[in-house]
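for the writeup, i need someone to sanity check this before i put it in the appendix. the sequnce is what the collaborator sent (i think, or maybe the updated version? ugh). structure was predicted straight from it, no edits. if anything looks off just tell me and ill rerun, i have time this weekend
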Amino acid sequence: MELPESGVKRTGAMLAAGRAAAGLEIADIARETRVPLRHLRALEADEHDSLPALPYAVGFVKSYARTVGLDPEALAIQFRAETTKAAHVPTPMSLEPLDERRLPSKGLVFASVGVVVLIIAGLSAWGSGAFDPAPVTEVAAVAQDASTDTGAVESTDPLVPAAPTAAAPGFAATPGAVVPAVGPVVLTAREDVWVQITDPATRSNIKVGILKTGESYSVPAATPGLQLRTGKAGALDVTVGGRAIPPLGGPVETIRDVSLAPADLAARAAATTAGTPAAAAGPRPIAEIPRPVLSSLPTPEPSSAPTANGTVPGV
């Protein structure tokens, strides 16, 4: 087909003539260029409305011309002059401002941030035990002895021996008890608590999971050097050779790499007991006194005469 005003052949006719001169079928062009056969036929018939967008159509023309030995750039320029297809113009993005009425106010934003900060601070303080009730020390120094019920009184006088204190949860209540350095180690959960017992020598887990309330676990004595990790140290009661030791930490305290060897636990218990104020004579928390405080009674003076129960004060 020729252009009526100049007598120049159209792009489709030039491509078809080039293909015939090369001795190729249109299917051969489709196989070489990987252009769909229907588009190649539309190019030869100058049916531009059947072609895809202009950039793709120009690319088809160049591939076709290159395959049959024609000048691809010259044919691309002629195709653009012949076709009525326009280049794609992207639609501009709308940048309309947001409606301020749909945005939260500054006061609401600041209040929300403040609430989140307070919640985080409260959880951190609770986890560190800041809200645990502090022990109230005894100001009046006299209390009736609950263990013997002999009428003897307790005072802050250093010459008068203090009555045995109540045992902390999970600790041996026997006066003067010494935790053995040998014997089986047993963990008992006072509430559901996650534990991990590992063997550092082999880097393997001996036990990982949750101990249910009241459930006990005997640490294997055949594997020395085992270590404990838990997020609620105070929820575990630990015994060594049948003797309870002080808690390994606070109610929600996380501990890790704590040795479960009997000797190490006994040393830990001895150090904890030595640092506990209740282990020595002196003021004790009121909550630990089993009898009402007889604060009105005078503090007995040291004397060499025996008391009613046959003991000599300060001896």
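Helices lie at 11-22, 26-33, 37-44, 54-68, 72-82, 106-127, 262-274. The longest strand covers residues 204-211.
thx in advance!!
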